[in-house]
Every structure is written in structure tokens, then in C-alpha cells.
Amino acid sequence: MGQTHNIEICLGSSCFSRGNREVVQVIRDYLRKNHLDDKVVLRGARCMNRCSEGPFIIINGRTFASTGVQDIEKILEKELV
Ligand code: FES
């Protein structure tokens, strides 16, 4: 059944405090709401040493910088189809 997607979210202190704390929650809710829990592997990542461009999230190897709760759902819709 479909392919598995990988989401990595930077949980280094900078990204975490600049939005990823909320974003990780939004992603969890989104996956549950859309019954995607078993199709998506969500993992926390360590600081990527690019904090000033963060907060970072990586979906299937593609990096999204400066993401926030306001755009995460759109990105998920687009990337997880
Ligand atoms: S904390 Fe995310 S890049 Fe440094």
C-alpha cells in the first residue's frame, strides 16, 4: 500500500524554539487526522549547523527552511500525495 514517506524535523534548540516545537505537534495531528501514521516515518533530527536559516524540516530528502505552523499543512499536502 503506497510508499513510505520520511519526515525529519530539526529538534536542535534553535529550530525547536523558533517554531518546530509547534510544527512537530501540527505534523502529528495532521498524520492522525489523515490516517497517514503508518505511511510516514517522523523522526527528530539534530542541529544541522544552519540555525540562522531554520527552522528546518526535511521531507523525503527535500529540505524546507523557515517553515512554520502557517505553511506546514500545505507542504504536507503537496509532498505526501
Ligand atoms: S537547531 Fe536546527 S539547524 Fe541548528
Note the topology:
Layout: E1 5-10, H1 13-33, E2 40-45, E3 57-59, E4 62-64, H2 69-79
Helix pairs in contact: 1-2
Bound molecules: FE2/S2 (inorganic) cluster.
How many alpha or pi helices?
2
Shape: globular
Q: Radius of gyration over alpha carbons?
A: 12 Å
DSSP strand content? 15-25%
Sheet bearing the most strands, described? 4 strands, mixed
**What proportion of the residues is helical, as a percent range?**
25-40%
Reading off the top of the CATH hierarchy, the class is best stated as Alpha Beta
Any low-confidence stretches, pLDDT <50, length ≥5? none
First-last Cα distance? 13 Å
Write out the CATH superfamily name: Glutaredoxin
Secondary-structure element string: EHEEEH
List the ions, cofactors and other small molecules found in this model.
Answer: FE2/S2 (inorganic) cluster
Structural domain count: 1
Tally of strands: 4
**Could you please say which CATH topology applies here?**
Glutaredoxin
Average pLDDT reading = 94
Structural class: alpha+beta
Strand order of the largest sheet: 2-1-3-4
Task: Characterize this entry briefly.
The chain is an alpha+beta fold. The chain has two helices and four strands; from the N terminus they run βαβββα.
Structural notes for this entry:
21% of the residues are buried. The protein has a single domain (5-79), classed as Glutaredoxin. The protein is built from 2 helices and 4 strands. The longest helix has 21 residues, at 13-33. 40% of the residues lie in helices and 22% in strands. The protein is globular, with a radius of gyration of 12 Å. It is α+β, with helices and mostly antiparallel strands and 81 residues long. The chain has a 4-stranded mixed β-sheet, with helices on one face. The protein starts with a strand and ends with a helix. It binds FE2/S2 (inorganic) cluster. Residues 10, 12-15, 47-48, 50-51, 54, 56 line the site of FE2/S2 (inorganic) cluster.
